[in-house]
Structures are given as C-alpha cells and as structure tokens.
Amino acid sequence: MIDMLELPGARAVFSTRRGGVSEGPYRSLNLGILTDDEPDRVSENRGRLAGAAAVDAQNVVMGWQVHGTELRGWDGPDPQRAFADPGGKELPRVDGLLTDQQGLALLVLVADCYPVALSDGERVAMLHCGWRPLAGGIVEKAAGAFDTPPAAAVGPGIGGCCYEVGPEVAERFAGVPGAVEGRMLDLRRVIAAKLAGAGVREVAHVDRCTSCEPELYFSHRRDRGLTGRQAGLCVLSG
Predict the structure, then answer these.
(1) CATH code for the domain of 90
(2) Among 21, 43, 58, 101, which residue has the least CB neighbours within 10 Å?
(3) Partner residues linked to 180 by β-bridges
(4) Where are the alpha helices (DSSP H) in the chain?
(5) In this predicted model, what pLDDT tens digit does every residue of 125-137 receive, in sequence order?
(6) The CA-based dihedral angle spanning residues 202, 206, 207, 211, taken in that order and rounded to the nearest 10 degrees
(7) Rounded distance between C-alpha atoms, residue 76 and residue 12, angstroms
(8) Owning domain of residue 124
C-alpha cells in the first residue's frame, strides 16, 4: 500500500493504488474526492492510508492544489477535517505545506506530479511538484523556509520515458543537464537539480514512473484524466 522513507526526525510516506475499496478506474486506494468515485469509498481509503502511515486521520492537513508556488504553514489540525471527512470544504489554494508540529501530517495528492518531502528534524514540508510549480521555484521557496538545509524524499511520478511536452515547456528547463531529450522531460532530474541548487545534499527517491506501472499507480496522462489519486505525506515523528 505504501512506501516509507526516513528523514531527519520525520518520515515520508508515498501511497500506491493498492489496498483500498474503490472500483473501476479508481481501483483501489483512490484518495481524490474531486473525482467521480463514491465519496464513502474515498473516505474509507483515506482512513486506511492514515492507519498504514501510523497517523491520526484528524491530524492530516492538505490544500487545494492549483499548480502554483504558494506555501501554507500549519500550527494545528484543520478544524474542517477536510482529509478525514472529505467533500464540500474550502481548502487553502496552495501547493506546499509546512509545519513544526509533531504528529501533524502534511499531505499532497498526485497522479503524475511528484510529491516531495523535506525535513531538518525541526520542521517538515510537503510539496506538489508538477512542471509549473517547479518552473516557478516552489522547491527553492520551500527550502528557504528552513534554518538549515533539509533532507528530501522524492516520491513516484511520471518519468522522462513517458512525459512528452511542448517546446514552450521544455525550454523552461533547458538549463538542467539531462532533463530534456527531444520532446521528453524528466522532472525527477529537474527536482534533483533544484534541490542541489538549494543546498539539499541528502535526497532519497522512490524512483518509479507512475505512467509505466498501471497496477501500482494512478496516472492522469496515461489514463487520460479518468483516474484516481495517490498521495505523498510527511510527518515529524521525533
């Protein structure tokens, strides 16, 4: 159901599509409420993820991701309980989350974009990294919110083997060695380069392509939008 990577004083969790109750194109651990999946199934799946990640579902916070670079700091649980009780909630429109609170889990939803967790042992961040946030500097912005360079964990995302882009996107990353091969863009290389540029030296990867593995991951591009969402989650664990 999940991959877990250790960070200084924290853990990063990356879910797969396995271990849930959803059916059809959302089989089985779909975590996205903004799909045509049954809301009760999404709620059950979220509870299962929280259990597997050893966090309280009431202590999971998230935003409404808009492919931007805004960050939101959290100092306590979401009073709306948007993760545990999904649907009809007004979420902050952000693609990055930060906290220094023990046990407060930061979560982003993905289906080809990359979930990136940061921790220095005192603070954690969770980022939703598609090409737009990366081009806009979300990694640099988040790393700059730490007093010392954090360590990073990069989850699964669409690989350079499968991510074809237009020239207007490719040119945004032309300066990243090895990131652009013809019309194919390797966002993992982009993330690695941006982390290095921000002074992040310790980086762990779940190096898998979401598009290549339909039995393990949802993929928006592969499934032409009719798909579920997996998650990246980070929590200070002491």
Answers:
(1) 3.60.140.10
(2) 58
(3) 185
(4) 39-52, 131-136, 138-143, 167-170, 187-197
(5) 999 999 999 999 9
(6) -140
(7) 19
(8) 2-236
